[in-house]
Amino acid sequence: MKIRWWFDAVLVAAFVALTIALINGHLLGFDQRVADWSLAHQPAPIYWTARVFNYLGQGGQVLMPVSLILTAVFFYRTRSWRALVPFVAGFVLTYITIGPLKIWADRAAPRFDGPDKTIMFNPAASGVEAMSYPSGHMGNSMVWYAVIALLVAALLRRPLRRWEFLAIRVVPVTILFGTTIYTGFHWVTDSVAGALLGLFLARLIERLVRPSSPLALPA
C-alpha cells in the first residue's frame, strides 16, 4: 500500500498549530471544562474500570514487552536482523520525540494541585506533574500498536483482515483516548496532540518496512 507524504505533512501541521494555539492561551478553557466534568463524574466502578482500560497505553509495562515478544518470535523464525526494525524504530522514535517534547512543554496534568494548571510552560509544576503535553499514553500507543500490527501481519504472512486491523490498531487507542481524559491523566488537547504525533511516527515506521523499502520485513 502506497503511503502518501501529504497526510504526514497534515499531521505535523496540525500538531504544530495545536501547540501554538495552546502556547497563546487558546483552548485552555475547553480543556478545563472537560476536565472539570470528568473529575466530577467518577463513581468508583466506572473510574476503576477506566483505570484498568488505561493500561492499554502503558508503553513500558504492556506494549513494549508484547512487541518485544513478537519481535523475538519473528527473529527466531526468520533469523534476519530486519525483524528487529519495527521494534528498534518504535523505541528510538518515541524516545527522541515524546519525552523531550513533554519536558519542553512543561504542562501540568488535570489532577495537578497547583495554579494555572492548563497553561504551557507552567513554572509551578515540576517532575512528572509537568509532563502532560503531548500525551505519552496516546503517542506511545499509536506507535506500539502499529508495531504490533506489523509484526502480527509478518508472522501470519498476510495482510491483516479488516477486523484484525480494527482490533489491534483502532479499538485500543480509541478506548485509551477516552479513559486518559476521563481519569484526569491528560487534557483533551494533550491526547489529541499525542495521537497526531504518534500516528505520524507510526507512518514513518510503516514506510521503513513496506515491501519496496530496503528494510522490508523478511517473508
Q: Main attributes?
A:
single chain; 219 residues; mainly alpha; 8 helices; 0% strand; globular
Q: What does this entry look like structurally?
A:
Helices cover 67% and strands 0% of the residues. By secondary structure, the protein is mainly alpha-helical. It has one domain (5-36, 54-209). Helix 3 packs across helix 7 (162-182), helix 5 runs antiparallel to helix 8 (188-209) and helix 6 (136-156) runs antiparallel to helix 7 (162-182). The two termini are 17 Å apart. The model has no long low-confidence stretch (mean pLDDT 92).
Work out the strand percent.
under 5%
- Globally, the shape reads globular
Radius of gyration: 18 Å
Give the proportion of residues in helices.
55-70%
The total beta strand count reads 0
Low-confidence spans: none
